[in-house]
Amino acid sequence: MTRTRTHTKAAGNHARPERLEARVSKAQKELFVRAAELQGTSLTDFLVASAHEAALETVRAHDALRLSERDRQALVSALLAPPAPAKTLQQAARRYRERTGL
Predict the structure, then answer these.
(1) pLDDT value for 11
(2) pLDDT tens, 29-62?
(3) 33: which DSSP letter?
(4) Number of other CB atoms surrounding residue 10 within 10 Å
């Protein structure tokens, strides 16, 4: 694949002074090259964009699962000492048992 100025700007408009290296199998490299070609971008830009997106998703998933200390304490308290069911919930459970024969 021929590298052009358009392809090298695809992943970002700023300089990238840092360098990463990785060893991959021949099959992996062929797959990466094919995917980059299908997207019309350079192998480097494809790999950087793919790794960037995977990293963002990993961080988002981790942050979504993190609770503040206050939230964590509230969750643990609710699990260890759940409040008594409300009267409407008790009535609904009774009706359910009557209708299902449980």
Answers:
(1) 44
(2) 999 999 999 999 999 999 999 999 999 999 998 8
(3) H
(4) 18
Query: d(Cα 14, Cα 61) in Å, to the nearest integer?
Result: 27
Look up residue 27 and give its two tokens. 């099959």
Nearest to 48 by CA among 88, 82, 8, 79: 8
CB 36, CB 7: distance < 8 Å: no
Domains of the chain: 1-66 (1.20.5), 69-102 (no CATH)
The one-letter amino acid code at 48 reads V
Dist CA 10 CA 16 (whole Å): 13
pTM as predicted: 0.54
